[in-house]
Design a protein that fits this description.
Elements: E1 3-7, E2 22-24, E3 27-30, H1 32-51, H2 54-76, E4 82-85, E5 91-92, E6 96-104, E7 111-118, E8 122-123, E9 126-127, E10 133-137, E11 142-150, E12 155-158, E13 161-166, E14 173-180, E15 184-188, H3 202-206, E16 217-223, H4 235-239, E17 245-250, E18 256-260, H5 270-287, E19 290-295, E20 298-303, H6 306-318
Parallel strand pairs: 1-2, 5-15, 18-19
Antiparallel strand pairs: 1-4, 3-14, 4-6, 6-11, 7-10, 7-13, 8-9, 12-15, 13-14, 16-17, 19-20
Helix pairs in contact: 1-2, 5-6
């Protein structure tokens, strides 16, 4: 479920709009260049007082006014911005998790020079070269940004906190806000291992003639069930408003097998066993088999399709957590 964050300003509640958005404060302080600019202003003011120079007074007050106007624009560049955090797609261990962020600018002015990065990666007095996503959001525009985080191990990868900042327009001040309590990304085990698939259950397979999608003669249709391959759906029947039907074939039927925890050599460790089971799940799905998964205390019944594959991989990702 997507989470909505509003920076500083609360939105008016709407009927049926779901949960109320979360408010986050917007902070502002001098950047490193801004501190040098402030020190220069103090030195100029002291010189103007010491020499009683009206032109020095004029220049000092003019630059001070510029700093105050810059402060207003820097703060306004973040105030009222709406950020929506959506759940990312699952990835395999060793890959890159992409957390989608939607920036909704409902104001009547552009918001240039925005930056978002994982926290803590930056301090206001220095920049450490951490990866940042710079972007602009025009007035009334919605902008999608993906924050990438390396998924080093299986399990749940949480987007703990992000730092959204801007130094618009002159870089003298920095305004920032924190985006925390983000969604989690499911990280599957890394598919690995060289062991072949377990043997197909021949007795059960022979009894499935005419009931599962095989590769022989076409016999008719049946109602769609979750886990069926989309390649066997009769799309023409769906276009004729006849419902969601799946083609049936006569023949040996779909092969069935059980991917058991005990079938993997136990000497390689838990993670190696999970990686081997993960490779078996992907291979069985690719071959069109009906497969079940058995883990200590967990069983996923026979099935196939994208939903069934995700269910099996999710059990492998959450095992032991």
């Amino acid at each position: 479920m997507a989470q909505t964050i509003v920076l500083e300003r609360a939105l008016s509640p709407a009927a049926g709009a779901g949960p109320a958005p979360v408010r986050r404060r917007v902070y502002i302080f001098f950047s490193r260049q801004g501190l040098m600019f402030l020190i220069t202003l103090v030195v100029m003011l002291l010189g103007a007082v010491n020499y009683t120079n009206s032109m020095a007074y004029l220049l000092t007050f003019l630059l001070t006014s510029l700093l105050l106007v810059c402060m207003l624009h820097t703060y306004r560049n973040l105030r009222g911005l709406v950020v929506k955090l959506a759940a990312p797609e699952a990835v395999f261990a060793g890959g890159t998790a992409r957390f989608p962020l939607l920036f909704d600018n409902r104001a009547g002015y552009d918001r240039p020079g925005l930056n978002v990065r994982p926290y803590p990666r930056q301090r206001w007095w220095r920049a450490d070269g951490a990866p940042a996503h710079g972007f602009d959001v025009r007035a009334g525009e919605m902008r999608n940004i993906d924050v990438e985080i390396s998924a080093k191990r299986r399990g749940l990868l949480r987007l703990d906190r992000l730092l959204l900042s801007t130094r618009y327009p002159l870089g003298l001040l920095q305004s920032w806000s924190y985006l925390d309590a983000g969604p989690t990304c499911l990280v599957y085990p890394r598919p690995a291992g060289s062991a072949p698939l377990p043997p197909v259950e021949g007795a059960e397979s022979a009894q499935l003639t005419g009931r599962h999608a095989g590769a022989d003669d076409f016999t008719g249709f049946r109602a769609y069930r979750p886990g069926d391959s989309i390649r066997n759906i009769d799309w023409k029947a769906l276009a004729r408003e006849q419902g969601l039907l799946v083609k049936r074939f006569e023949g040996a039927g779909a092969h069935r097998l059980v991917l058991r925890w005990d079938a993997v050599t136990p000497g390689f460790g838990v993670e190696a066993q999970l990686s081997q089971l993960c490779r078996w799940v992907l291979e069985a799905e690719k071959l069109g088999y009906q497969y079940a998964l058995e883990l200590p205390g967990i069983r996923v019944d026979h099935g196939r399709g994208a939903d069934h594959q995700h269910q099996c991989l999710e059990q492998l990702a959450r095992y032991g957590l």
